[in-house]
Each structure stands twice: as C-alpha cells, then as structure tokens.
Amino acid sequence: MVNSVQNTAGVFAAPASEQSQIKETEDRFLKLLVTQMKNQDPLNPMDNAEVTSQMAQLSTVTGIDNLNATVQALGNSMLASQSLQAVSMIGHPVLITGDGIVLGSGKAFAAVELAQPADKLTVSINDASGRTVRTLQLGAQDSGIVEVNWDGMTDSGAIAPDGGYTLQAVSELGGSKRDAVTLEYGLVNSVAQSQSGVTVNVGSKGDVSLTAIKQIL
C-alpha cells in the first residue's frame, strides 16, 4: 500500500526542472522584497499591508506554478496510459470514420453509424468516377453501428471488379432524410505520440486520432 501511494505521488510530482524554476521564482521575489526593506526610507517605511500584499502575491504565483506543474504531469501520465491502451490494438481491424470500401474476392465490408433510429437506411456504393454501381436498401435500423456487406454484384446483375470504392448513406426518419456517418475497415499497424495526442496508423488512412476509431473488432 505504501509503495502504491509513493508511486502515485511520483506520477503527479512536478519534474525536477520545473521545481527548480519555481524555487528560483521564490528566491528572486524574496531577494527583491528584502532589498526593498533594506533600502526603504526610515521616515516613510513600507506599510505592513503592502508587505502582506506582496507576500500574498508570492503565495499566489507559487500556487499557480505548482498547479501548472501538476496538471502537466497529469497530462503526461494520461498520454502514457493512452499509448499503452492503444498498443493493444496493433494487429486488430477497426472501424474508423471514412467512406472507403474495398472489394476483394466478391466480399466487401463497411458500416454506417446512426445517431438515431431510421425508418429506412439506403447505402450507395460508387466507383472511382463517382458512378453508383450498387444501391443497398437496409430497411429500418436502430441507432448505433450498422454493418454493410456487399457481395460485389452491381445493380445490373454484373460482377464488379475488385478494388476500392466509396459509399454514401442516407437515413430517413418520419419522412425526413439526412446523411449518415459512414465507417470503413482498417488494420492498426502502429501507435505514435505527437503534440496533438496519441495517433494510430491504420492502413491506407495513415495516422488517425483515437477519437476516429469507432469500434475495435
């Protein structure tokens, strides 16, 4: 238990460099205050209230510095924790925000995310030129993630060539139509840390933030 508490305290402690900066700020402030008191006019000495005010300012500045250091340490700890969690996704397929769908050997998978239920969900699959090759009527759906499976057949009954396509989704509720969020599959290859946070490399999509991942499969 003691070790656990000590470890926790170590995580949130300010780095030595930041602690040194805080100490230097305190020393400069105190030296300035002592110099003022030594060189004050004996006939017009510093007012006690003024001294108290300056000491209060020192306390406030030191408190803010300590708070900033603690918040920075907490942020670093959270970033490290996110990285460890993200590493467990390497090698796993995920669903991320995107409109790509890849057809191979007569199979293609994607998904749609619905913020609310739909009376009717229509998904259009388009080729590289933007021409719709297949329209899928998925009927009524509950809110959440809806799987999209395509067997490679076109609306005309032909077999579409393997390769990359895009999809669009429109949901309808109570006669009102709205675009739905499309999701594409990808494989997590690696994890990295950047100034903007933790990112994962997902195939052709490149590096994406953790918030872009909607489901781990």
Structural features, described:
By secondary structure, this protein is of the alpha+beta class. It is 34% helix and 39% strand. The chain has 3 helices and 12 strands, in the order αααββββββββββββ. A hairpin with a 4-residue loop joins strand 10 and strand 11 (207-209). The longest helix has 40 residues, at 48-87. It is elongated. Residues 1-14 have low confidence and may be disordered.
Give a brief rundown of this model.
By secondary structure, this protein is an alpha+beta fold. It contains 3 helices and 12 strands; from the N terminus they run H-H-H-E-E-E-E-E-E-E-E-E-E-E-E.
Shape: elongated
> CATH class of the largest domain, please?
Mainly Beta
Strand content: 35-45%
Q: What order do the helices and strands follow?
A: HHHEEEEEEEEEEEE
Q: How does CATH name the architecture of the largest domain?
A: Sandwich
Give the structural class: alpha+beta
CATH fold naming of the largest domain: Immunoglobulin-like
Residue runs with pLDDT of under 50 for 5 or more positions: 1-14
Head-to-tail CA distance between termini:
37 Å
**Overall strand count:** 12
Helix content: 25-40%
What value does the Rg take, in angstroms? 30 Å
**Average pLDDT over all residues:** 77
